[in-house]
Amino acid sequence: MKGKNLTKKLMSILLVLISIAVIVIAFVGIYLPKLNKLSNIIPNYKLGTEMDGIIEYRFYVDDSEEEKQVYVDSDGKIRGEVIEDDTSLSTASDEDTEESEPENNTGFDIETRTIKANEDSVLTSENFEKVKRILQKRLENAKATEYAIRMDEVTGNMVIELSQNDNISYLYQVALTAMGRFNITDAQTGVILIEKDHLVSANETANYDDTSGTYTISLQLTLDKEGTELLKEISKNYNPYTDEEGTEQYNCISINVNDESIRKTYFTEEYTNSTLTIPIYQNVSASDLNFEENIVKDIAYTLNNDELPIKYKTPENALFIQSSVDKGILSIFNYVMIGLLIVITVYFVIKYQFKGLLAGIFNATLVGLVILAVRCFANVTLSISSMVAFIGVVVINFVFMIMYLNNIKKGKEKSYRETLKSFYGIMFPIIVIAFIFTFFVSATVAGLGSVLFWGLLLQIIFNTIIVKYVLENK
Question: Domain span at residue 218?
Fold first, then answer.
């Protein structure tokens, strides 16, 4: 029996020492040599825009216009822009081109028209609001941590604010400037062969090559029945041929996404499949797979949803706007937390003596665990509200500890279970609210909810496994 009690006491001492180590790591860090200096290996807090500043883009409605030669059908509808240079590929080299005067054998008339970037009819308040909705959904889909879109309802101009925590250039490319357009054109003339109306869905696929040990990431485009029939007819006409000089040439189609050609190709046989698989990234290593997969997924997302009804001028530069909140608030926050934990520990010691000292240490340990979870594992953006949530975690656990220590002091059997029943009966609604808050788009609300959620989750686990074992060890 004595041996068993000694083992429990030694285990309790070990757990207390480990708890103290957690406190030191959370508030001080772990410093190791790196590039001839000591560096903290514990990640810094991910600061929110209210503390770290914002990246701002200003988008203006494109009011440009240009005279262009276009193909026009019998109804006066534009069927594509005339390509002045006829480009074909030969077997001598994939990069060699031959130029000749364009010939109009398309069956459409060629007219010179003034093409506006935005027709007057599309510049409506409804379309301005639609642009805002589309961009909000894109940014959410691309997992932007914090953003704000301010739209001028009269002019349609807008200001978009992003967090420095995000990959700004990535969001700019896949969410803000992509029009969401798709078509297939004749690569030689520019005539539109298949429009987006025939696109059913766009998806990302990744295929692994056992030989090279790399991946090919493709954009998979599925057409409707009519689009499939059009593609079948196209495959009969866009294939290799031999010119008068005996050189093999190619009639190509161009597959265009967001006004850029992502693939020029031809057919060697009749194509009856409804799906086109377009390689976007090839020879991708496993380490780069996730990032480049996400790019193609986000491109697919823009194609599966509404096009932007209005075209904007591409901003030349982004502006950095510094936060009005002094970053020294982080130091103040740490001092406040440490001071609060010391006061609580002193209170525990005065009222509960030795067990109070242990309770104070464990209370600080719980806060340290939440800090490490937020900095190392949880995708939490630190804001003023999440700092308040940290103090909330301290107060909540303080109340729990008082209830638990009082039950122990009264000599109640199953003190911990009694405390759990009474405490979490009151706290359950707060746990549910904290969990719901973690899914909010607003980083301020999500940060508050995440800190509370992690605090309450770790409180249950830590108190059940460690605190109960040590405080009830006689």
Answer: 51-321
